Amino acid sequence: MKPLSGAYSDTQIYCSFMASSEATNNLTDCLISPWMDAGNVIDYLAKNPDSDRFALLGDVISGLAYLHDFQPAIVRGDLKGANIFVTPTLTACLGDFGLSRFRDSQESTLGATTGNTTGTLGWQAPELFDSLVDGGTSRPTRESDIYSFGCVCLELMSGKPPFAEIRRDGTVMKAIMNGQTPRRPVEDLVKYGLDDKLWAVMEKCWSHEPIQRPEIE
Predict the structure, then answer these.
(1) I want to staple 84 with a disulfide (CB 3.0 to 4.6 A). Which of 30, 41, 59, 212 is the partner?
(2) Which residue did the predictor score with more confidence, 3 or 140?
């Protein structure tokens, strides 16, 4: 290791470097992912609106099914369009596994406990907010992954996040806890695949009771 001229004598830089080194030592595993020039699936569809959205959803289903069928099952956690990337062969793949964990584990697959960090607000299942009421800890489950998948369907078909019409995070949280589900877009998106049949599946994914949600298979 060669010191950078002038920088190694700076106490603040040295302390920052040592703090980062100590934090890195606490990691049990690291993931290195290839760079995806096409970006995440939402950005890709914004630039390529005529792409086969059902094919991309099929890729997401395959990836999520692989994780859920793994022994022991892996809970994805924080499933959203921004964490789904498009490969050079135009296949959608799941990325950013920082909140993923084995189903029966209290730790993420990267070794850091999830605690109350359960994902991105609008994509979270209502039961993940229970800790705000009882002071406990809520962790993602396969059922909460299914709820998030319904939100991903909405994203891919409309290009908008769930609850896009609500501006305040607190209002979104309250709506989800009260059983409100994402609103169906007023635009005619049948050309993209958002018909009554798909919307019915999405509504099942958003069932307030986790046991009533479909399995990814």
Answers:
(1) 41
(2) 140
Q: Above 60 in pLDDT, residue 109?
A: no
How many alpha carbons fall within 13 Å on the CB side of residue 66? 8
Sequential DSSP letters for 98-157: TT-EETT-SBBTTS-B-TT--S-GGG--GGGGHHHHHS------HHHHHHHHHHHHHHHH
Which residues are catalytically annotated? Answer: 78
Place 24 in a pLDDT band, splitting at 50, 70 and 90.
Answer: low
Residue 112, Cβ neighbours under 10 Å: how many? Answer: 15
Read off the tokens for 90. 């135009």
Sign of CA dihedral 43, 44, 49, 54: negative
Alpha helices in 1-109 (DSSP H): 11-25, 41-47, 53-69
Determine the Cα–Cα distance for residues 137 and 198; give it in Å rounded to an integer.
33
| Residue found by looking up tokens 């950013």 in the block | 96
Domains of the chain (ranges; CATH) run: 39-212 (1.10.510.10)
Q: For residue range 126-164, what is the model confidence (pLDDT) as tens digits?
A: 999 876 666 656 788 999 999 999 999 999 999 999 999
Average pLDDT of the segment spanning 11-24: 71
What does each C-alpha distance from 199 to 32, 62, 84, 99 come to in angstroms?
A: 36, 20, 21, 28
| Core vs surface per residue 46-74: b (16+ CB within 10 A) or e | eeeeebebeebbebbbebbeebbeeeeeb
CA 202, 152, 37 angle in degrees (round to 5)? 155
